[in-house]
Structure of Aldolase:
Amino acid sequence: MTASASLPPPNGVFVPVPTFFKPASPSTVQAAVDVETQVKHSIHLAKNGIRGLVLLGSTGEAIHLSRTERFDLISGVRKGLTEAGFPDYPIVAGVLINSVEEALEWLGDAKKAGAQWGLVLAPGYFGGAANQENLREWYTLVADASPIPIMIYNYPGVTNNITVSLETYTKLAAHPNIVGCKMSHGNVSHHLQVSLDPEIDHSKFRVYSGFGQQLGPIVFFGAAGVIDGLAAIYPGTVAHLFELAAKRPIEEGTLLEVQKLQFAVSRAEEFVGKWGIVGIKEAVYRVLGMGTLEGGRLPLKGSLPKGEWESWSVATNAMSTLEAKLGK
């Protein structure tokens, strides 16, 4: 892979889409992947301001799917988007595995299925024993042989608290086949320092947050956007927030609108933070009428407790109102 070929994803809002499953059947061990609904949801996002998709990331439960299921899901979404008039729509494929060889297998499959980038999770099974030098070597080996450009995925919550250091970002950003990162943690300072680091070529290495509640603050200081779960439910509003926050110069009236939108988004993000994948999937069902109320695959199977969704009505109704005003 040459430096000229390794372009980063575009700026904007990406959605780490949940993987949809068909209703459970007594004749199967677990519910089958629902590619038809996956395509329908993906097209809805593409039509409502979302710049691209992250398929089979953490929210997409990649670790709960077989190799064949992962391939069929990505290729099915690619085919569906193309047929709906969105050829070459940005798709990033999650890679959630610790072995270098298997990471490359996932990346090879992702390319064949139609993904343009891989979001590669830091290898965290032995996270407590991993040091930054070994982490840099691991990513370098993967990037050297990957058939598609990769992004660093730092999610301490699922990797035994591995934190990619600022120095590691700076060094790995120089690799011609490493084109960005997703930071799924609350350290805004790390977002800003990597986004503003003068030693990084920001035209080829872009920073995304995993949290929409950080969107405005990090975009003001050079971040490329967010890969945000709330946008799976309310795509138009989160996308509009990004569009306004990215305007330069920003006028006072626009700034006030950004602040109002950021408040609404941040308040609704509390729901996503509390209930995670199960909450996102139930919200997509309730708001968009897609999927089921059965949650994910074990151990994530299930729905919200009775009355829980209604308890968030102040935040969710505000988001629905904003979405309606945008015509979404």
The chain has a mean pLDDT of 95.
